[in-house]
Specification:
Spore Coat Polysaccharide Biosynthesis Protein SpsA, Chain A; 7 strands; seven-stranded mixed β-sheet; alpha/beta; single chain
Length: 225
């Protein structure tokens, strides 16, 4: 089996990163865990180290998810990469099907199709309007309709990310990566896995988050027109 590096970008995830790292450690296919602390003011990096991450990179300033992932890719050594969010907690151990699909050459990139969220909403849901924008944009630019265009949980051959070269820094990273990979002719498969995120609420911070995500997705699509 190919070596597999798990890359976990994290910002202010001190409460969840240890559980996420421990869960990924239980996946026998993963040979390296790289955590990238994206300039967190809390002790995310320290918690990741204590949990047993093989490499912990602490960025001096917040670069956004795409910037953190690229730092992780540069540090990772394996031929298969799996991107996992820092707040998956124990559910991260269910990522194996994503990895197996790439290692077995069934696909070049696998994307997690998460369970439907509760009506209260959460990260795993895709945020309605943002989800529709992402799905419409990818279809318009590539002809492919994705069920989970915003899913950040994905495995891929290193060649895929090397061909893309640069990722969008903000919340548009997943949409931009999907468009670029499809345009380059890589195979993409969506796989249902029971991963769960910490919920993003319907308070002011939650709506601001969704607003930033909408703008970032829009910008990622506009860059590729």
């Amino acid at each position: 089996m190919s070596n597999v590096s798990a890359i976990i970008p994290a910002f202010n995830e001190a409460d969840t990163i240890a559980a996420t790292v421990a869960a990924v450690r239980r996946i026998s296919a993963v040979t390296e865990i790289v955590v990238v602390d994206d300039g967190s003011p809390d002790n995310t990096a320290e918690e990741a180290r204590k949990a047993g991450a093989d490499k912990v990179i602490r960025l001096q300033r917040n670069l956004g998810k795409g910037g953190a992932l690229m730092a992780g890719v540069a540090a990772a050594r394996a031929g298969v990469l799996v991107f996992l969010d820092g707040d998956l907690g124990d559910s991260a151990s269910h990522s194996l099907p994503l990895i197996q699909a790439v290692v077995s050459d069934e696909t070049d990139m696998s994307i997690a199709l998460l369970p439907a969220p509760a009506k209260a909403g959460g990260k795993s849901g895709g945020f309605g309007l943002v989800l529709r924008l992402a799905r419409w944009g990818i279809r318009r630019l590539t002809g492919r309709t994705m069920k989970a265009p915003l899913s950040g949980q994905r495995a891929m051959k290193r060649e895929v990310i090397e061909r893309v070269k640069k990722l969008d820094r903000g919340f548009g990273i997943e949409v931009g990566l999907t468009v670029d990979a499809l345009r380059a002719g890589w195979r993409i498969e969506e796989i249902a896995v029971p991963l769960t995120h910490r919920a993003t609420g319907r308070d002011v911070s939650g709506f601001l988050h969704r607003g930033r995500q909408f703008l970032d997705v829009l910008l990622a699509l506009a860059r590729r027109i």
